[in-house]
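Input.
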Amino acid sequence: MQGLIYEEDAIGLFLLVTVAMGGWAGWMAARGLAKAWRPFWQCVPALLAVAAAVRFIHFALFGGTLLSPHYYAVDAILVMIVGAAGYRWTRTRQMTTQYHWLYERTSPLTWRARETAPAEP
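Output.
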């Protein structure tokens, strides 16, 4: 996997910087946009910026390649996946909390319209 997903000598740096730090920052950025009721497409530029920051940390602290399209793509994909999950988790919580009479949670990332009881004659 070394060379394909991460460029450092140890996977620990990849897990620390990209997965833990980048994932957390992506989750929080997407969560903030969801809490402000922004559409998901606005997460894309924010998460790409987080991926660029992750790539800079790899470069500045660990001697990684700054302008590497390959490793930037790996970082961006991971940050986008975690960010999309954070956005969806937050939006599900919003919809089922604020509109509890209309929607019910079906999983941590989905909701559905509540089924109303049929009116009795």
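The radius of gyration is 19 Å.
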